[in-house]
Amino acid sequence: MNWRQIPLGPLQTNCYLYTNGNKECLIIDPGGEAQKLTSIIQQQHLKPLAILLTHAHFDHIGAVDEIRNEWKIPVYVHKNEKDWLTNPSLNGSEYFMAGKIKASEPDHLIKDEGMIEIGNFKLRVFETPGHSPGSVSYYDIQSGIVFSGDALFAGSIGRTDLPGGNHETLLKSIHEKLLTLPEETLVLSGHGPDTTIELEMEGNPFLNGF
Q1: Where in this chain does the record put each Metallo-beta-lactamase domain (predicted)?
Q2: Using CA atoms, how far apart are residues 61 and 41, in angstroms rounded to an integer?
Q3: Per-residue model confidence (pLDDT) at position 108
Q4: Could you give the CA distance from residue 59 to residue 176 in angstroms, rounded to a whole number?
Q5: What is the domain-level CATH number for residue 83?
Q6: What are the start-end ranges of the H helices in 1-51?
Q7: Is the pTM of this model over 0.90?
């Protein structure tokens, strides 16, 4: 499997193209700039299979409908945020001078932790709330990669001052779900550079003393 990080939208949210050897791909968090993302997918001759959302804040969903409609692919989001795509007050766009960003309802609701299989992609879903109530992380045990959304960043953690956020819940999620992964696991976050579980265990100042 190969991955490409593409910062998109007003907050330069990391979108990821996760690609297999058949040039099929999963699109994780298409946050905006649909035309740019579409051009990259076409230039690489990729075949998108699905859109996976780590959560449904406005900066992660801005290109959802255009990408979904272009390739006729389903959108996955956690059940706790099933109404966020259609509601600018829930997804936060109403409060961030970003315009009222919304998308159509999701096609699939993630109801529990466990495995999801799309084509030959097999990802384990971890519920990692705290930044938002429906935040999830997607872990590929074979590739040693976790897409952590806005839960865990290189040297930082997600903000918890938005509706539905909770600092203690986020720290619990990180410690119980992410830091228990193998130390060499590559962490692909919603913003900023990639990191590893080992680096965050050793040096992330927000995780000390929990």
Answers
A1: 12-191
A2: 17
A3: 97
A4: 26
A5: 3.60.15.10
A6: 34-43
A7: yes
